[in-house]
Amino acid sequence: MTADRDELHAWVDGRLDGERLRRFEQRLDADPALRAEAQAWRSQTEALKGLARDVLDEPLPERLTAAAQGIAPGRRTANAPGREAAASADAVRRARDPRLWLAAATLAALAWTAGWISHARFAPPGASLARTAPPEFVRDAVAAHVVYAPEVRHPVEVAATQHEHLVQWLSKRLGAPLTVPSLDARGWSLVGGRLLPGADGARAQFMYQDASGARLTLYVADAGGLSGDTAFRFDSDGRIAAFYWIDGRFGYTLSAQTDRATLLALAEEVYRQLTRASPAPA
């Protein structure tokens, strides 16, 4: 199984060639489920690569070039244009060095983690909804929202017009009956859904849209060892807001680019409908 996953991710990253590539693509042709998972991973990878491409292509700001050269503001002289040009070019080369970008990304990740830890350590007693970093499935849910919510031509794999097929298909892949909440009364109509890969198996994303074209996604994932923690929790990166909770086997994440109060009302409605649809305990 590990070898299979290694092959899959090598294909997604473009690291397969020759005979290995030919054999793996034969497997994709023969296995629709594997093909769907591989294409989902590749689409997500390409979309994430594109998020910052415009920023990377921007020219380096002059003040950063000066800082890299160790030149204080106002100290640039007119009698050494050749030396400044050479130093500036060297600074740009250093700034484009992928090792520096990797270091910056690592520092950003550390800063994000430190922010969560400090929030958990120093937040007032009333701030109980966000004491700890969200589970992995929440991070994956928000990433999937960022990737697929802007899609115009292919936001979902199965449209809402095939509602019965959509529910049966995703229920089968996740190994349990799923319910798709209706949010029409709240102004959000179902667009459809898609199958997504996860570290612990298949996951589902249902997408909704309001009259303005804004998108809302409900992400369903196996909660694993987190099962039993049913409290609502809130997470936001300043742009995408998410409420998440765990009910029985599954973890649910509702994500949208909206305010907390609006999203909470929608999350409560989703939770009510999912609870009503759940079979009564024996």
CATH architecture of the largest domain: 2-Layer Sandwich
CATH level 3 topology of the largest domain: Phosphorylase Kinase, domain 1
**pLDDT < 50 runs, ≥5 residues:** 104-131
Summarize the biggest pleated sheet.
7 strands, antiparallel
How many domain regions?
3
Strand content: 15-25%
Task: Give the ordered list of helices and strands.
Answer: HHHHHHHHEHEEEEEEH
CATH class type of the largest domain: Alpha Beta
Structural class by SSE content:
alpha+beta
**Overall pLDDT metric:** 76
Count of helices?
10
* Sheet with the most strands: spatial strand order: 1-2-3-4-7-6-5
Radius of gyration: 23 Å
> Number of DSSP strands?
7
**Helix proportion of residues, in percent?**
40-55%
> CA-to-CA gap between the ends?
36 Å
CATH H level, superfamily name of the largest domain: MucB/RseB, C-terminal domain
What spatial form do the alpha-carbon principal axes imply?
A: globular
Topology:
Layout: H1 2-12, H2 18-30, H3 32-51, H4 53-57, H5 62-69, H6 81-96, H7 98-122, H8 136-148, E1 158-159, H9 163-174, E2 189-196, E3 203-209, E4 215-222, E5 233-236, E6 241-247, E7 250-256, H10 260-277
Antiparallel strand pairs: 1-2, 2-3, 3-4, 4-7, 5-6, 6-7
Describe the structure.
With 282 residues, the chain is an alpha+beta fold. The protein folds into three domains: 2-54; 61-96, no CATH class; 136-277, 2-Layer Sandwich (Phosphorylase Kinase, domain 1). Helix content is 50%, strand content 15%. The chain contains ten helices and seven strands. The chain has helices at 2-12, 18-30, 32-51, 53-57, 62-69, 81-96, 98-122, 136-148, 163-174, 260-277, and strands at residues 158-159, 189-196, 203-209, 215-222, 233-236, 241-247, 250-256. It has a seven-stranded antiparallel β-sheet with strand order 1-2-3-4-7-6-5, with helices on both faces. A hairpin with a 4-residue loop joins strand 5 and strand 6. Helix 3 crosses helix 8 and helix 5 (62-69) crosses helix 6 (81-96). The longest helix has 25 residues, at 98-122. The radius of gyration is 23 Å and the shape is globular.
